[in-house]
Amino acid sequence: MSDSHGGHDHAPPPGHDGPLTYYQLKEIAVRELLIEKSVFTADDVRREVEKMDQRTPAKGAAVVARAWTDPAYKERLLENGTAACEEMGLDMGQTYYLVAVENTESVHNAIVCTLCSCYPRTLIGLPPDWYKSRAYRTRIVREPRAVLAEFGLELPESTVIRVHDSTADMRYMVLPRRPDGTGDMSEEELAALVTRDCMIGVAVPTAETVAS
Amino acid sequence: MTARFRPGEAVTVRRAPSIGHLRTPHYVKGRTGVVERICGDFANPEELAYARDGLPRRALYRVRFNQRHIWPDYGGPEGDTIDVEIFEHWLEPAREVEG
């Protein structure tokens, strides 16, 4: 096996181990130009990426816990998700509208973006890799029950499944059902039960859920 | 812009060809569903994709489809649905009444 580097002139940028795709090359070229022209610095870019990576599902979990403990808040959340999140001090930006969809005894909701990977990042952080995979995006709309079963969530035929395809300007968050046996828990303790997957709708919280 | 369709109204997605950038998924073309809600008016993504202003804004709807009407071989129960956001210029009054 040759140890030649095959004529590569540049070390690969950090974070790019494999061969670069067309769009990755384009991003690097544009970014380097903008840095050269002092539009922003490399550190600005790094800081923004770090900020994105540090988003977690904690904000979404706090919204869910509030809805579980305050019926009037829940009503406002289902009526206008964006306004209800802003009410809790969350900056939702100007870019999207949040639609909260409620799981009940007879209805289970799941979210997807079949066209790309739209996701309520402000509330629940960056989407997991599987959410962006072609397999999830094509199958959850076509055979949701089989996909949910693969995630370990078997739902009876009596439960209606509503899949929400985030194709345009709305973003979705599932409002899960409050688990049984949590009557004594504080809002903070309840929030710890609500994981990312529960808000995507591929899992349901239980009294023992351990949030990551 | 005044929304042409009301919540609860049956609408059919146009079977127009997919040219350029659009946000209407192929699997609902020609399918009939019911307006779940009016989302508001939004810049047209088919224009925004080419660095134009996307104006005038277009009415955006959430349309609820019965899964069995989308996938003839759908294996789940009758009540399962899929909701999709669709811009008004992709919708027309329902061509067929689907139960």
Helicity range of chain B: under 10%
Q: How many domains make up the coordinates of chain A? A: 2
Radius of gyration of chain B using CA atoms only: 14 Å
Number of domains of chain B: 1
Could you give the order of the helices and strands of chain A?
HHHHHEEHHHHEEHH
Q: Report Rg of chain A.
A: 21 Å
Work out the strand percent of chain A: 5-15%
- The total of helices of chain B stands at 2
CATH topology of chain B: SH3 type barrels
Q: Give the N-terminus to C-terminus distance of chain B in angstroms.
A: 31 Å
How would you classify the helix and strand content of chain A by structural class?
alpha/beta
Superfamily at the CATH H level of the largest domain in chain A? Nitrile hydratase alpha /Thiocyanate hydrolase gamma
- The proportion of residues in beta strands of chain B is 25-35%
- Main sheet characteristics of chain A: 2 strands, parallel
Oligomer: heterodimer
What does this protein structure show overall?
The complex is a heterodimer of chains A (212) and B (99). The radius of gyration of chain A is 21 Å and the shape is globular. Chain A has 212 residues and is of the alpha/beta class. In chain A, the strands form 2 sheets. Chain A has a two-stranded parallel sheet. In chain A, strands 2-3 form a two-stranded parallel ribbon. Chain A has 11 helices and 4 strands. Chain A has 2 domains: 22-53, no CATH class; 58-200, Nitrile hydratase alpha /Thiocyanate hydrolase gamma (Nitrile Hydratase, Chain A, Alpha-Beta Complex), CATH 3.90.330. Chain B is mainly β and 99 residues long. Chain B has a single domain, classed as SH3 type barrels, CATH 2.30.30. Chain B contains 2 helices and 5 strands, in the order ββαβαββ. Chain B has helices spanning 45-48, 67-70; strands spanning 10-13, 32-42, 58-66, 81-87, 91-93. Chain B has a 5-stranded antiparallel β-sheet. The longest helix of chain B has 4 residues, at 45-48. Chain B is globular and about 45 Å long. The mean pLDDT of chain B is 92. Chains A and B meet through helix 9 and strand 3 of A and strand 2, strand 3 and strand 4 of B. Strand 3 of chain A pairs parallel with strand 4 of chain B.
